[in-house]
Amino acid sequence: MIKISNLTKSFGQKKVLMGIDLEIKMGKTTCIIGKSGCGKSVLLKHIVGLLTPDTGTIEIDDKDLNKLTYEEVFELRKDIGFVFQGGALFDSYTVYENIILGLYEHGEKNDDALDSEAKRVLSAVGLLPDIDLQDSEDYIKEWEILKNKKPADLSGGMRKRVAVARALVGSPKYIFYDEPTTGLDPVTSEQIDEMIYELARKMNVTSIVITHDMFSVFRIADEVAMLDQGKVLFEGSAIELKQTNEPIVREFISRFMIEN
Asked: What is the Cα–Cα distance from 61 to 176, expressed in whole angstroms?
């Protein structure tokens, strides 16, 4: 479980987080929503230890991030996969090199082990056939073509899938998505949502999704937290979100409610 208590963060005179209290339930998909600049991405970066809070605590599996050494945080991150906004693939690396980079940096140098994990995660996100078919001619052919492609050779949806595959390496307990459907057309966005939903169910991972796309929220979320002015304004299920009478929340989700 992830427990956030009284988290605050300022950048100079600008106060971004002003007392965040939030619990992320295990095995659930939690969407964190809110207007641009409300602190969603800043909160996410705190949870993975990329930023240090001014005050407050973040506990992951009963471990207080503030009290961990750099080495302990590095070890904890093995349980966390992160899908950056825009994918953040390395343009000069092939798909295969992008996928196995984290494993390699953590000390795995065996080519067979690296190949096996790359195939597993690329199959999981639908870029390769089912891993059980890896000895077939079609699988081998698709693998050889895909592994050597560069990000520039891929569509936006495929780049996003590669980014998710990279986050799945090592079978993490938690996966963090920062605006996973930004810049994608509606059809591709829905496909990415379906992938996130299926991965959460099949792999039993705890997913935290930063998004302003309410269509995505109602497709994938078990739980929703809305930030406003540096605090949690709403916390509850997706159904409760639809039913709330909180004016700021109603205004934020109004476009979705009108179109549905």
From this structure: 16
